[in-house]
Amino acid sequence: MDILGREFYQGEDVVAIAKATIGKYIYTIIDDIPTAAMIIECEAYSYKEKGCHAYGAKKTKRNAAMFEEGGVSYVYLCYGIHEMFNIVTNRGGYAEAILVRAIKPIVGEDIMKSRRGSPSYNGPGKVTQALGIHRSHNNMPLFIGNTIWLTEGKNIADANILESPRIGIDYAAEDALLPWRFTLKS
DNA sequence: GCAATGATTTACT
DNA sequence: GTAAATCATTGCC
User: Of the candidates A93, A71, A74, A85, which has an alpha carbon nearest to the alpha carbon of residue A35?
Assistant: First the structure.
């Protein structure tokens, strides 16, 4: 299958990449269990705005993965309970990433359901749980085809992608209004 | 060392 | 709609 190469992630416009990520397939092989799903919702984050952990290009131990070259994963724990899966973009040092918010199961739905305990996958914490991703998968390359990777997936027309403000970052003030959330129209 | 807090989910009123 | 759960990371003392 067509694993997305490094160049897909290294563009300079994280928002454009986020939009292009809608409809892509994400594959994981975790605990020897393969699963696949289509990305149907994601959000862009950049060091240039307050919603991002790396706002102001401030590097910390937690967000170090975002400063890597595009094409690696950024997984972290939030609210002490939920793990979130991000795709790092841009070149090294620019700290931009895409948060995967919702998926549609393609392979291994029963596995996801049993991991989740509930058959819904719309929410960042649910996505990581369904796919079996956890913090130890932080800073992993996504362009090799090992453990976690993306493929070309479905080609989605622009007209079928909705833009809207991001969710859950009210503290980011005016930056919370940026239309950096992309959803597949169903 | 210690207090504050969050890119959320879930259940309850 | 509102609130509690729950802990690693952060920032300040």
Answer: A85
